[in-house]
Specification:
single chain; 8 strands; 299 residues; 8-stranded mixed beta sheet; alpha/beta; 9 helices; globular
């Protein structure tokens, strides 16, 4: 595994696994909320579903201010202690609302952006910093020369060293492009060298929510077919969706190591890198509700 992957996994672990926030009812709240600000990307990477328009077409849809303001208000109401990650199914910096989104969410919680870096310039970096962004995570796909380019760019913008992360993503298929490569729940053939994990737990639904531009809540960040939707945040609240019967069913199956439900039955993501603590807390909560779920130790 590349050192940058290990470093990033350790960083996310600190954000996700160290402190778990409980709801008033006693169940663990999500502490990683990923939002998709826009459904368009300016790149077409071979390891991304966006490379195939029949699977993930570019569409000029953006998350409207009314929706993300509603989400921020709900997060404030529950005193949210986690992270909002602006990334999703497109290049977030292409959204005309991105600076406002950062400003709205950073007033409530830690707010980060993952970007391919192409739309970045001195002015944009300064705008994001002024808006309160916690971290700008840049995935570099072209080559090592990008390191000096982005270091110079962030220096010009007087960005603190701890305000950005540069991730090397320019490797070939044999090195998995410097990514933790998966088949995106069966959408891609890449990652097929890792067999589908039919009998392995997964904790994605225990700690994170993936929200599309229109408020649809996906099962997890791996479901690029957008098959399983547990609610829509234009009509439902974050907490309502988070404790929905649908997610309870998936947690029940995944805690027992059963990947029999779609899209889990096509997925080869490990799913146990984060969230074990939350899974155990869900186990306790459901046990109190007379629902038995067994947590299976990951290998």
């Amino acid at each position: 595994m590349h050192k940058t992957i290990e470093k990033n996994l350790a960083r996310v672990s600190r954000l996700v696994d160290e402190d778990v926030q409980l709801s008033e009812q006693g169940f663990p709240l999500f502490n990683w909320l990923e939002l998709s600000p826009i459904d368009t990307c300016n790149r077409s990477c071979v390891f991304c579903p966006k490379t195939d328009p029949s699977k993930a077409p570019n569409q000029p849809h953006v998350m409207p201010p009314m929706l993300y303001q509603k989400l921020a208000d709900e997060l404030k109401a529950i005193n949210y202690q986690g992270t909002v990650m602006l990334a999703g199914y497109g290049e977030p910096l292409l959204s005309k609302h991105i600076v406002d989104m950062v400003s709205v969410f950073s007033a409530v919680c830690n707010t980060e952006i993952t970007t391919n870096g192409d739309p970045l310039n001195k002015r944009k970096i300064q705008q994001l910093l002024d808006a309160g962004v916690g971290k700008i995570v840049v995935s570099m796909y072209d080559g090592p020369e990008q390191i000096d380019h982005y270091k110079h760019l962030f220096s010009q913008a007087n960005a603190p060293l701890d305000s950005y992360i540069l991730r090397d993503r320019w490797y070939g298929e044999s090195e998995e492009y410097g990514l933790k490569l998966t088949n995106r729940a069966g959408v891609l053939s890449f990652g097929e060298k890792v067999e589908k994990l039919h009998h392995h737990p997964c904790y994605y639904p225990d700690y994170m929510m993936m929200v599309d531009w229109n408020g649809d809540v996906m099962l997890c960040t791996q479901d690029w077919n957008r098959r399983i939707k547990s609610g829509n945040l234009s009509f439902n609240s974050l907490v309502e969706v988070w404790q929905s019967k649908l997610l309870k069913r998936y947690r029940s199956h995944l805690h027992a190591g059963k990947r029999d439900l779609p899209p889990c039955n096509q997925c080869n993501a490990t799913g146990t890198l984060h969230g074990k603590k939350q899974a155990l807390l869900w186990d306790d909560y459901y046990a109190d509700k007379q629902i038995n779920i067994k947590i299976v130790e990951s290998e």
